[in-house]
Amino acid sequence: MQTVVGVLRGGPSREHEVSLKTGAAILANLPEDKYLARDIYIDKQGQWHDRGRATTPDKILRQIDVAFLGLHGEYGEDGEVQKLLERFGVPYTGSDSFGSYLAMHKIMSKHKAEEVGLLTPKFHYIERASDAEAIAREVVQHFRQPVVVKPVAWGSSVGVSIVGGYAPVLAAIQHLFNEGSPTVVVEEFIKGQEATAGVVEGLRGEQLYTLPPIEIIPPTGDFFSYNSKYSGETREICPGNFTRVESEELQRLSKVMHRALGLRHYSRSDFIVTPKGIYYLETNTLPGLTAESLLPKSLASVGVAFPDFLAHLIGLART
């Protein structure tokens, strides 16, 4: 008998369009002999839809065996939809509600990284828009310019900017508050090789299987911004041009953070490799699974077929 898999995609986040693509990739690659897929669309207002009709979560969730989360950003990765699924007792792919919240909150995840001995850029946490001017002055005085300004709990590099000088830093902070980010972080800009490394639980008989680290080379004059992530202009090399020691350390650190944040099933952590060491940036609990996304490329590099990976995650969700 086929397992009914509800693929949740869309959602009320700034990553709505990317989530649609991730969900489409999941729907297209679920093995049809094992699974009966249900395309569950959540619009930008948070309304759930089943087969083109607006409905409520309770009506849909009673009809599926497992939920496959193709959501990104707020609601999808911050623990909110996970809490809903837990309340209804529906198994789902990815980390639980608390682990998702912890990883999505860039300050909490940085503190966890520091607790387990990882390097991470120095930062200022801004909880109130009224503090923006004072912190912008402090940042310009004490941090080498430019700096990175980003929202604390958005993903896919949405809202991230690299700016230098008092006026640009202040403007970037104020812009994020105006755009609805409840809190903002300003951190050191670490120059080096951008890297990401994924882990998958239970793959190939390993408790926590590490995928080859990917080197990310954005277009000249850009960083790994939202646009460069999905425009096809960024070069993504897998395995990356790292020394053996660097590659092994990236893999080790990705496992360390997966465990430190209490995550499940799979995750992908981002780093900067420098001569002084490897700096931890953040961890993605629901990495993109589009054709342009990083995790499918690292899976392909070690011969893991995408449909097999999806089936593996469903198996983890149901155990």
Describe this structure in words.
Strands 10, 11, 12, 13, 14 and 15 form a 6-stranded antiparallel β-sheet that branches. The protein has a 5-stranded mixed β-sheet with strand order 4-3-2-1-5. The chain has 11 helices and 15 strands. The chain folds into 3 domains: 3-93, 3-Layer(aba) Sandwich (Rossmann fold), CATH 3.40.50.20; 102-118 and 191-285, 2-Layer Sandwich (D-amino Acid Aminotransferase, Chain A, domain 1), CATH 3.30.470; 123-188, 2-Layer Sandwich (Dna Ligase, domain 1), CATH 3.30.1490.20. It has helices at 16-29, 57-61, 80-88, 97-104, 106-115, 132-142, 166-178, 226-230, 244-260, 294-301, 306-318; strands spanning 3-10, 35-42, 48-50, 53-55, 66-69, 123-126, 147-151, 161-163, 184-188, 193-201, 208-210, 214-217, 235-237, 266-274, 277-284. It is an alpha+beta fold and 319 residues long. A hairpin with a 2-residue loop joins β14 and β15 (277-284). α6 (132-142) runs antiparallel to α7 (166-178).
